[in-house]
Every structure is written in structure tokens, then in C-alpha cells.
Amino acid sequence: MSISSKFSWPTIKRVVLCKSSVCFQYKPLSKIVSSNYFPTEKITSLKKDTLLYSLEKTKLIRYLTIYGIAQFGICTVLGLNIFMSLKDTKPSRDTGTQSNEKSWRDVNLGASKHRIIASLACFSLGFLTAFICYSLPSRIVKTVTLCKGGNVASFVTYGPFGKTIQLKVPLQQMSCMMTREQAKSYLPIKIKNRWFYYLLDCKGEFHQPALFDVTVGARNWKF
């Protein structure tokens, strides 16, 4: 009887914290490469920038910017027209003698306070629409690249008229709020000291899913 058959040697395993699924995964060394596992020592030894995610929506962002500007212009013109065109007219009847059901007929919409309120409402609606059309593209991620060394990720987001904005963030200062399997439409990523979430459209292409899950797609519990 050989020594190997007499003694059963335990399988050597290593522990890897898969932050994207928020669980510990135990993998044998013989299965070091799989679809849902990436060796952590290869992350810190990256010799070049690696593209993790990409999305193309330049044409849609241009249309969205044009729509925001047009909506702001239309609401501004409408507000000015309301303020300048409405005339201050007096009620045709004595409002004190009529019933409450017909009192709305004698409301003087041409009074200064009504004209100012209506004009400000139109201007605010146009400004809010333009602000959303300007701010939303800056939170839609176009590409995500893991920089050389594996400690910093480069985000490229959209800007007005389809322009791009680049942002480099250390992995310790970001947190993915859910896994790729849980996300149905957008994958939200929180970046420290930044308002709102950065959104990754699930319709985009994940070029390195396993590497993405243990780096950018990881959950940081300090947030």
C-alpha cells in the first residue's frame, strides 16, 4: 500500500473576497481561472491599462442636450409672454355677493402677483429641464478602464453635445451598489465626495466581467 493511498491529503484552497457578490469564494489552485473568479495577484501586476466596460450613446446625448436648450428657450419665451400680455382687468361683478362656486370666474389673472407667479413657474420648469439634460449625461459612463497597477479606475462620462469627461478614481473611493446579476437596467456606482450615482447601462459591453467584479464592481462597505 502506497503512502498516497494511506493518507488523504487535503485540497489546497485559497480565500478570495468576491466583493461583487459579497461572499467568500473558496477555489482550488487548479481552478485558478474561471468565469466568476479572478486571482487577486494578477490585479496588482497589470502591466497596461485594461478596458472593462464600454457604451456608445453619443447621438442620444446630443439630442438630449438640444432638447434641454430648446425647452428652456420655449419656457422662457412663454413666461415673458405671460408677463407682458396679460392685462390687469377688474371683476365684472361684486365678488362679495356671489356664491363660492362661481368666485373663480372673477379671479384677476392679470394682477401683478399672478403674472409674476406664472412667469416664474414657466422659467423654473425650463431651467429644471435644462439642468437635468445637462447633468444626466455627466453621470452616464461611456468607458471604464482599469489603469496600470490595478489600483485606479478611469471613468469617461458624457458631456454636453456628446463631449466626454474623464475622471480617475482610486478603487478605495468607489463602491458598486449591486452586482451585475442584480442590476436590470443600470448599475449604480457611488464615488466618494461626488453627488449622485454614476450609471453603467447594462446594455453596454463588459469586456472583462471577472476582473470588473473584483475591482470596479466591488462593494465598499465603508460607504
Question: Describe it for me?
Answer:
- The structure is a single chain.
- The protein has 223 residues and is of the alpha+beta class.
- Among the domains are: 40-55 and 140-216; 57-86 and 110-138.
- The protein is built from five helices and ten strands; from the N terminus they run αββαβααβββββββα.
- The chain has helices spanning 3-6, 40-43, 58-85, 112-135, 209-213, and strands at 13-18, 23-28, 50-54, 141-146, 152-158, 164-170, 174-176, 186-191, 198-201, 205-206.
- It has a five-stranded antiparallel beta sheet with strand order 6-5-4-3-10. Strands 7-8-9 form a three-stranded antiparallel beta sheet, with no helix packed on it.
- The longest helix has 28 residues, at 58-85.
- The model is unreliable at 1-39 (pLDDT under 50).
Any key phrases for this structure?
alpha+beta, 3-stranded antiparallel β-sheet, 223 residues, 5-stranded antiparallel β-sheet, disordered N terminus, 5 helices, elongated
Distance between the termini: 58 Å
Helical segment tally? 5
Mean pLDDT rating: 76
Element order, helices and strands? Answer: HEEHEHHEEEEEEEH
Please bin the fraction of helical residues.
25-40%
Question: β content, as a range?
Answer: 15-25%
Structural class computed from helices and strand pairing: alpha+beta
Q: What are the segments in which pLDDT stays under 50 over at least 5 consecutive residues?
A: 1-39
Main sheet properties: 5 strands, antiparallel
Give the total of beta strands: 10
- Please give the radius of gyration in angstroms: 29 Å
- Strand arrangement within the widest β-sheet reads 6-5-4-3-10
